[in-house]
């Protein structure tokens, strides 16, 4: 067995340790390299964030478009129902002048709704 306590062995270990330390020091990245790496990582993170943002904006746009379509078709259905109700009440002449007034009112509402410009996003 080798005696690890000998002076020669201790010197050899010290020399190996110093060589390893020098090797680490020689290959230690400098401040410029670290800054460049940090910059690349930051740009990569930013590009990922922008990609996510684009996707979020696209999804939000689709949701707004769908909501707008639902509102528009709902308003159209509501106006059709009101118009149909007005027409059916006009057809029933048992109430006379009241039906005529309601009919004119509903026609005016329908005309106003048709004149209102529909804005598309």
From TrEMBL:
Record's compositionally biased regions (Basic and acidic residues): 1-17
Name assigned to this protein: WXG100 family type VII secretion target
Stretches for region Disordered: 1-20
Native organism taxonomy: Eukaryota, Metazoa, Ecdysozoa, Nematoda, Chromadorea
Organism: Nippostrongylus brasiliensis
């Amino acid at each position: 067995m080798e005696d690890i306590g000998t002076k020669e062995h201790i010197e050899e270990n010290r020399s190996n340790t110093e060589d390893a330390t020098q090797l680490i020091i020689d290959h230690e990245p400098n401040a410029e390299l670290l800054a460049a790496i940090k910059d690349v990582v930051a740009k990569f993170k930013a590009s990922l964030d922008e990609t996510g943002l684009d996707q979020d904006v696209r999804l939000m746009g689709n949701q707004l478009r769908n909501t707008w379509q639902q509102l528009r078709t709902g308003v159209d259905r509501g106006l059709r129902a009101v118009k149909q109700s007005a027409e059916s009440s006009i057809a029933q002449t048992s109430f006379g002048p009241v039906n005529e007034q309601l009919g004119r009112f509903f026609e005016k509402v329908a005309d106003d709704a048709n004149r209102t410009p529909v804005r598309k996003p």
